């Protein structure tokens, strides 16, 4: 089959690789229908996170089950399914507590020896704990397929950030970061009943999506200017709930500075850079809480799926460029150069 591999920084290839097979009775084989490129994939693309030459890549996909192992009972051949960005057994202590990303048998698509989502097919370990069935009729609805694909990562991650920030009805929320996760956090905050949502971003095409998703205000400034702008919008107090969806020292410092005393920060930006941006003394004095991390999106899919199916939320606008599998390297280049927000990969 064809699959995307990474060989060196900026060296993405679509190559022939061995067709995956069911190896264990808990496996399923999924033929990929839709996949996408994540902002976090760019760290490998830029050489900022290590990969072995020829390693697979891609962790967001949905597709059709082609074969299952003898112990799989939750999905059957022919089912349309979505896979969260990590597999999990669904039965360990962490999975039962909803923290599927800490599953004792879990793993990440594209790890050495495993298939990545940016390919034609994927062997799915622990299929019953990992895969979620979708309505089969969705396969003929392009918009709905795109919206459902966000359940594999960005919509669930935005929701995780909003929960970590303590978003509630009537709250004022600020979202630092205008990538796909930040935009989905805006949508999640609106869904949870936030009264005012301030989106921090300087790219108009992205902040226009933020407004569509429920942002009431947009702040284009950065650093101290951004802090002053948010403070001005909030009577000098800051936001009750702040989402940090970038992961740099500057973005975290901004998040702390725009949080209202007694408020909370939900952080889901993969940390990178020279420092954390945190001053525990400031957070202690102002009673600011910090909660977040790798989003256990598998635990959120049952809650978010009905709202996507009935149209209450539609995250599909985060995809602004579509490529076929052979065009994935060009998709990486477009996202790296910020000419695309998030690239949808369509397998014909």
What is the gist of this entry?
With 348 residues, this protein is an alpha/beta fold.
Radius of gyration: 20 Å
Backbone structural class = alpha/beta
N/C terminus separation: 13 Å
Q: Which shape, going by the Cα principal axes? A: globular
Order of helices and strands: EEEHEEEEHEEHEHHEHEHEHEHEHEHEHE
Task: Write down the oligomeric state.
Answer: single chain
- The average pLDDT value, as a whole number, equals 96
What does this 3D model show about the protein?
- This protein has 348 residues and is of the alpha/beta class.
- The protein has twelve helices and 18 strands.
- It has helices at residues 41-45, 93-96, 127-130, 142-149, 154-164, 180-191, 204-213, 223-233, 249-257, 280-285, 297-309, 328-336; strands at residues 2-8, 11-16, 28-36, 55-56, 61-68, 80-83, 86-87, 107-108, 121-124, 132-134, 172-176, 196-200, 217-219, 239-244, 259-267, 289-292, 321-324, 343-346.
- The strands form four sheets. Strands 3, 5, 6, 9, 10, 17 and 18 form a seven-stranded mixed β-sheet that branches. Strands 13-12-11-14-15-16 form a six-stranded parallel β-sheet, sandwiched between helices. The chain has a three-stranded antiparallel β-sheet with strand order 2-1-4, with helices on one face.
- The longest helix is centred in the last third of the chain and has 13 residues, at 297-309.
- It starts with a strand and ends with a strand.
